[in-house]
């Protein structure tokens, strides 16, 4: 059961390939995403008609496991001598729970990068960012300087577009030396810490002070249109775009400009955020052995080759890096995908983060619009968010 496994998707093809080589039949149930999927999944899990395998939002793994809905995969990992060193740690270790259980298994990852309009950089005489993640330079100051020189007046071209993407909630604070949105134990709302609020204010000021970023109203209106940000970038109206690697397939198909991918600018450090396609086995799966066999296939070499063809989703085995070699289409820095994953962090998750988001995300609009400073806006809700994280909200 998944929200994106229709017959024209790679995940569906992988499922059918597994069934063929396993001499099994597989019924792929694809349910619309968003709230519809979560509602349907919970209904199915409570009905007794459990699927063998489910796709699960990475945000919710801990909550589903804590309520007893997910099978601990540790015995299967040990039985088949699965070596953690064969997988990117940011993915393999993600599903480990406080009691040692391995509650799910990511099969694909999707780290954040900076998309750059190479034509615009050349036209403006601005050096491109480094292609090596560990290279010196490419700081926040460098980013602002580039965005200023890349911007054309009257909205003809903005230097950067960042706050359309929730990835920045982790990327910019973490690179300013914080733990991101929450503390490692997900009990403290560290997005309200000084290092995080300084980072978000820096982003907001790209529009409010420097005029190199679309204003809040433009972004709010645009976000309601699918692929709005990617379209602005692909048509040359934005020179630098924060986005996940999942945007690569769209841009390879639709971009009208010469483009490439680069690391985010560094401040205290240079890291990025990682999101994942996660599969899990319900605790009452009718056939957990077959489910485990399917999961193993999804992280194996045959599936990895199929998944890597999109160029936007990275299989979790470290050996998949060899599949990300540049071809005759952008991006030429395709190896940056693997570098990003090696330097990615996961959001610190807790049982109540979905509720916490309903409180803090609307407040971010106060920051982007300039109605409140980041320090005032986020400091004003810290106590409420932390009460929710403690299970009291």
From TrEMBL:
Record's subcellular location: Cell envelope
Major subcellular location class: other
Keyword check for Transport: yes
Highest rank taxon of the organism: Bacteria
InterPro entries: Bact_solute-bd_prot1, SBP
Key words of the record: Signal, Transport
Family of the protein in this entry: Belongs to the bacterial solute-binding protein 1 family.
Protein's UniProt name: Extracellular solute-binding protein
Organism of origin: Occultella glacieicola
Organism ancestry: Bacteria, Bacillati, Actinomycetota, Actinomycetes, Micrococcales
